[in-house]
Model the fold of this input.
Amino acid sequence: MYNAFIRYGLPESILSDRGSQFKATQRGGEANYQWYAHQLGITLVLGRKPQTKGKIEGLFRFVQRDFVMEHRHLDAIQAVNEAFWRWLEDYNFSHEHEGINKQCPADLYSESLHRLTRDELEFVLVHEEPRRVLKTAAISYYGHYYQVPDEYIKRRVWTKLKGTNLTIECGGQVIARTVLRQERYADIPKNRL
Done:
């Protein structure tokens, strides 16, 4: 979504189903997706009618049939993402659609006037979470371990994620910067886990 927002601007609204990743299941709660949409001024439209839900499910089936089945051989997330962007670009700008008088979907698109700069968008989309530093002078971040200086062992630190850049802070000072790893535990010696 970040890449789409940078390239095309912010949409007025986004249609999604009522899954727990899109809408909090607890009364009065708010899912991250809802919070981010609110911060960006995007109206969330949650499908209620079977016809609307069917359109969402139809999109998922189409992506599985047309993209996933042809790219099952890819074994790295980066390769899948790159292939998906190429496929999406081709579909939107080269595919003539019967339902819209043999036009490409991009021919009917009008660019959003509501835009944010990369810095403004990143400021809203920064993901922050606290972590406790382990005895091995590392923090665990979604299945990966990242080293920090030894003096922070057993202290609480804050992780800030912008895109794939992870910054670790303590007391308002940056103590480590790294890029998220794709492979789990690839460069951490076994005795440090």
